[in-house]
Amino acid sequence: MRQEHIRNFCIIAHIDHGKSTLADRLLELTKTVEQRKMKEQLLDQMDLERERGITIKLQPVQMHYVYQDTEYTLNLIDTPGHVDFHYEVSRSLAAVEGAILLVDATKGVQAQTLANLYLAIDQGLEIIPVINKIDLPNAQVEKTKKEIVHVLGCPEDDILLASGKTGLGVQAVLERVIERVPAPNGDESKPLRALIFDSVYNTYKGVVAYVKVVDGAVKRDDALYMLGTKQDGITVEVGLFKPNLVPVGILKAGDIGYIATGLKDVSHCRVGDTITYERYDRVGVAVEQLPGYKEIRPTVYASLYPVDGDDYTVMRDALDKLKLNDAAFVFEPESNQALGRGFRCGFLGLLHLEIIQARLEREFQLEPTITTPSVVYELKLRGSEKHIPLYSPSDLPDPASIEATYEPYVSLSIVTPTEYLGGVMQLSQSIRAEYKNTEYIDEERALLSFEAPLMDVIVNFHDDLKSASSGYASMNYEPIGYRPSDVVKLDIMVAGEPVDAFARMVPKRDAYSEGKRVVEKLKEVLPRQNFAVAIQAAIGGKVIARETLAAYRKDVTGYMYGGDFSRKKKLLEKQKRGKKKAAEMGKGKVPIPSQAFLAVLKK
Known about the structure:
Number of strands: 32
Largest sheet: 8 strands, antiparallel
Oligomer: single chain
Structural class: alpha+beta
Distance between the termini: 57 Å
CATH architecture of the largest domain: 3-Layer(aba) Sandwich
Strand order of the largest sheet: 11-10-16-7-8-15-12-13
CATH class of the largest domain: Alpha Beta
Strand content: 25-35%
């Protein structure tokens, strides 16, 4: 197949706008999958993706289609729509020359649509606007057309109408891709350069890199070299996505396929890296790295602890297996006085955390205790110019040695119907957001821009936004760096002993309300003891909120049926002395059940 007959493209859209359904119709139209094997959301391989109706992992597939007596090879990448998997979208855009911009006719242009569109424009891709779900009775086709013209600046005639569910207009979309998307322009005679846009682990073949071959060619038994991670490998197998992995003899410039590298560690073959021939590096011929090598950095950290200490090894093996197929997930061992041994884990967002937790429960039958999610702060210590990262509040050094604290900020975009503008603005004031500007997409919808601390945006804000807008508003955020911040460490003490798992960094202005909320919640969920338990919230040495869990009182005189009162008094005095002794001996030995941690997490 010559390069001019190859078309590489992806589908980008907001979550739940019908990307996977449109991909299903394209597979049917090109007869890539037999009708008897066809099922809904075919490219969504995980059970979790099917249940939640969302794409978590990008998925490539190769199709063939005859148009005007010429056979074309069409390489499609189905991308996720949720903001937590934004990185997956950016990497798949780097591997293609065109993008179908899909907009739901019932919902119009939304925040993630805009974010993905700007990414595609930055990559210089040919964009094909398509309005989906036109068969629905509440479809607003004309209104959606005006929104697309406003954000894309294209003629109205360029916008295609389709229904992924019924297949209406899908053939026109496919033909438009062939007409408009440019063919790849790689050079087969140059040294190999292949961009990794995803990787998975296979027990027999090692790390399988999903690649777009930009220059050169690659076949089995070729020596490989990763330019970013400086790792050597040997090609075990090369092949194409049909959508299952199908081995072929050779991959050439312009192809999208996979290379089984034989490497045993996913971190040696990172997404965004460039694969070349080992020999070109060794003989001193400079091979330029492809743009797009960027390490994925987790934005949210939380610790996972097995409920039963004996499950520690089982949990470590489970997390190892999850990491093999999820390069963005990181973890390292840690121990905690209250919870025992566990793992500090890094995630791309709270949905990513939820997915990992669900996979642990489903695939490994583990239900871990999860500590309060936190972002990575930076500290500047006195007498030092360096900024050091703070992954967990329990690692905070002596406050007297800290000159300044910095926290990550994001650029927050919210698309909302204008009737909910007041509610959304009021909500933004509750999260320390700094208002930037308002842009009207049309008479009924507005795009609001803010800059806000990442911690405020990831915890509950998405749910609150849906409540404030009756489910119509959508949001997207992107990191914009660190800024000085007035945050303090809030310690929670139970019976005079600080519990590390409850410690958190909070804005100074919210410290009292957050401390009060946590101690009140703990009073409800902690089991009563034989002595009164003080539950306190403190900043440094100053207690800012307190609740007392009343002592459990045993009726020591219940078995007596009469006699002198002095006998009862003697027993009550003995109980009093016992309680005093228990309070002295058992201080800080209050067992904290795992559900207490979950109860505090939920606001």
